[in-house]
Amino acid sequence: MRRMTISNRVEAGGKMLEAISLGQDAVRLKPYSLNPTPYSLQPIAAASRFGRYKPEPSHEVRPSISKAKTLIEELRQKRHMLRCLDPEKAKTVIEFTGRINFFEAVALAKREVRLLVPNIVHDKILTETEDKDQLRSLYSNVTSSGTLVIYESPNTPFKDEVTFEWEDYYKKHYSISFIVPELFRGKVNCVLVVEHPDFDIIDFGNGNYKLKADDSNVFLLQDFPKTSGDWSMFDEMFRVPVGTSFHINQLYVMANRDSMRQLHRSECPFIGPLSRAVAVDKSGRLLVTSNCSVYLLDYAVALF
Known about the structure:
By secondary structure, this protein is an alpha+beta fold. It is built from seven helices and 14 strands. It has helices at about 10-20, 65-85, 85-90, 100-110, 120-130, 130-140, 250-255; strands spanning about 35-40, 95, 145-150, 160-165, 175-180, 190-195, 200-205, 210, 220, 230, 260-265, 270-275, 285-290, 300. The longest helix has 20 residues, at about 65-85. The radius of gyration is 21 Å and the shape is globular.
């Protein structure tokens, strides 16, 4: 499938979603099996009488808090609609950015008010599309999602803060940290999940960043696999591999591909997006990785 640019796909995507929105109240997310646990759930313009005055020069200002909240709500609505779309339709309203890093992807999405496509949407496309050539065209590179995960080293409980550090190709040091909600501190072999646009990245300079998210938007998934390369079940809300890990053969995987995923993870603390591997065969489509997100990767954004 030839990738279309944002300029010639926004109109088509917008028309399609206008029709879908009429029935969106009848669409609901499937209940997920392992029950991720949230931390807590809780102008009239003056017209003609001012027309005789000379207009004052305008200055760009930061958007008001109420406007910022409106934009976030708009993106959340887009996320909900995208999750509910049939994979064939979802493919027509997303575009891949080309190789950029995680911080550039977040900045691009914020600047253009775009949604970073969640992992569950990629998962549906990868597992429900039969056309291999089409998948190779779409997922020509490893593609990162808007679903972020935060986890500690195996058998290490969450403390007050998780910090992930790495070096790029030029040996430049980077770090990103996240303050763990109090309710989740002490939890072991678990993973925290937060999706775009429910987080923000604060740049402190010199390669140091902080991930910020309201506690109510951070979810805990238990039984996160401790070893990389094993197969396990996944939760239905995010499609993150969780549960008992298995060392299984290819035939078993193919027979149970609708319910199993393979996880590649870091043995060290990690903060970053889930990524999907290049789609070559059906077993490759089931690979979920969280240890290559520090490199230049494709990202997918919603066009509508």
